[in-house]
Design a protein that fits this description.
Layout lengths: L24 H9 L5 H9 L13 H13 L3 E5 L4 H16 L3 E5 L11 H9 L4 E4 L7 H9 L3 E5 L13 E3 L14 H19 L14 H10 L7 H15 L4 H9 L18 H7 L3 H4 L5 H10 L3
Helix pairs in contact: 3-7, 4-7, 4-8, 5-6, 7-8, 8-9, 10-13
This protein binds manganese (II) ion (MN).
C-alpha cells in the first residue's frame, strides 16, 4: 500500500490575527493558509460585500457598449455566441436576458461539444446568413483570430468577451473584453459569466445614466448574480479573490431566494431546500452540461419556462 506523507502547514502564531479578532480559531488558521496574515485584510475579505467595481475601467468596454447600443437602438439582430459548459451557458443566459430587457433583438448560439472550444467559422457565416450583424461572444473567442477575420469579411461586427488566457495575437474584433490582458485594469481571475456580468453592468449603467425612462422596469442588477455565482463556482474560479467571493456571496443569497424558477428546480432536484444552498451550488455535473446545452439554445432563453422539464430530465438522469 502506498505510504502517504502528510505535510501540515504551520499553526498560526498566537499573536497578530488572533488578538482582538472575533474569528473562530479554525477560520483564522484557514485565512492564514490562504495568505491573509494581516488581520485588517482578513476582516475586509470576510466582511466586504460592496460591488462598486466600475465596468468601464475594463479595456475596450466603452467601444463595446457603444456598438451594442447602436444595435439596440435600431433593433439590429444580435447573436450571443456562448460555450457549452456551465460557465458558458450561464454567461449566455446572463447577456441574452440583459440585451432583451434593454429592448434588443438578440438570440443565443451555443456550440455542440463536438465543435470544441472557440468560435467556428461555419457557425459565424450561418449567423451572418440568418441576419445577425453583431456577434457578442461570452466565455469564448479569445484565440479565434482566423474565425473573427472570416466573420468580419462576412459583414459581422464582433465583440469578444472571454476570460481564457490570451494567445500570441488578439482576434481582430471590434472590442476585446478580457481581464487577462495586461493592459486591462481590475481583477483578472473572473469567470466567463463574471466578464459577461461586467458587460451587462456597463450596459445597464449606461442606460441608467443616459435614458433612465427606458431602464428595464423592475430589473435589479442582483437578478443576474445567481448566474454569476453558478458560473464562477462551476468554472472553479478562486474564491480567495475578493471580487469572486463578493459575487458568489450575493449570488448564493439570490439563489436561496428562489427568484429564478430554473435555478430553484435545480436546487430542489439536488434536495437543497431554499435557504440552505450554501455548499456546492446546484448540480451540473460535466456530463450533463453538454446534454443540457444541446437540448437547446432553448435552455438559456427558456430557462425559467423549462424548469419543470429540467426537473424531470434531471431525475431521469439521476442528478
Ligand atoms: Mn469559462
Amino acid at each position: 500500500m502506498m505510504q502517504k506523507r502528510w505535510v501540515l502547514v504551520e499553526s498560526t502564531p498566537d499573536e497578530g490575527m488572533v488578538r482582538g479578532s472575533s474569528f473562530n480559531p479554525a477560520l483564522i488558521q484557514i485565512l492564514c493558509n490562504r495568505g491573509f496574515a494581516d488581520p485588517q485584510a482578513a476582516q475586509q475579505f470576510i466582511h466586504s460585500r460592496d460591488l462598486n467595481e466600475d465596468p468601464f475601467a475594463m479595456k475596450d468596454m466603452r467601444p463595446a457598449v457603444e456598438r451594442i447600443n447602436r444595435a439596440l437602438a435600431s433593433r439590429e439582430p444580435i447573436a450571443v455566441y456562448g460555450d457549452y459548459d456551465a460557465d458558458g451557458v450561464c454567461a449566455t443566459t446572463l447577456l441574452l436576458t440583459t440585451l432583451r430587457k434593454l429592448g434588443g433583438n438578440a438570440k443565443a448560439h451555443i456550440p455542440h461539444r463536438d465543435d470544441g472550444y472557440g468560435l467556428s467559422e461555419a457557425a459565424l457565416l450561418q449567423l451572418a446568413e440568418d441576419g445577425a450583424r453583431l456577434v457578442v461572444t461570452v466565455d469564448c473567442g479569445i484565440r479565434s483570430v482566423a474565425e473573427v477575420a472570416a466573420g468580419n469579411a462576412a459583414g459581422l461586427d464582433i465583440i469578444i468577451s472571454d476570460h481564457h488566457s490570451i494567445g500570441a495575437a488578439l482576434p481582430p474584433a471590434l472590442a476585446v473584453i478580457n481581464p487577462r490582458q495586461i493592459d486591462c485594469p481590475g481583477e483578472e481571475r473572473l469567470s466567463g459569466t463574471g466578464v459577461a456580468f461586467m458587460l451587462a453592468l456597463a450596459l445597464l449603467k449606461d442606460r441608467w445614466a443616459k435614458d433612465r425612462d427606458n431602464f428595464p422596469p423592475g430589473l435589479r442588477v442582483s437578478d443576474l448574480l445567481d448566474l454569476v455565482a453558478l458560473g464562477t463556482v462551476a468554472d472553479v474560479m478562486p474564491l480567495n479573490v475578493s471580487l469572486n467571493r463578493r459575487l458568489v456571496a450575493h449570488g448564493l443569497a439570490v439563489i436561496n431566494q428562489g427568484r429564478r424558477p430554473g435555478m430553484a428546480a435545480l436546487a430542489a432536484v439536488a434536495r437543497l431546500p431554499a435557504g440552505e444552498n450554501n455548499g456546492g451550488g446546484p448540480r451540473l455535473p460535466p456530463g450533463a452540461r453538454p446534454t443540457i446545452a444541446r437540448r437547446g439554445a432553448a435552455w438559456p432563453s427558456g430557462w425559467d419556462r423549462a424548469s419543470m422539464r429540467l426537473d424531470g430530465w434531471a431525475r431521469r438522469n439521476r442528478l
